[in-house]
Sequence to fold (112 residues):
Amino acid sequence: MPRLLAIFSIHLLYSKRHFLQQWEKIKMYDPLWDDHPKVKKIREESKQQGKIEGLRTAVLSVVEVRFPDLTELAQQEVSKINTPDILKYLMDQLLAAPDETIARFVLHPSAA
Fold:
């Protein structure tokens, strides 16, 4: 049993050393990867999409809490908006809306 433990310990040490060597090689490429224009573009697009999804969720939460009867309309309208500034403005307007009629107009001006 002690011999098996010794063999396992040696294997574990080798594995750790091998992993660290490989990690050092990979780390060398990190700056190249991070600075690549395509990677930057993908990261920026992902960040933007995350912001949009977060704002959509926030707008829908406001509607669900304040004007539950307008939830379906809000889902339809919010899914069409792909600009964070517009979603933020919409959320602000819904938070300030005094009643459901105004909220409906904010969500879909031509339907009110």
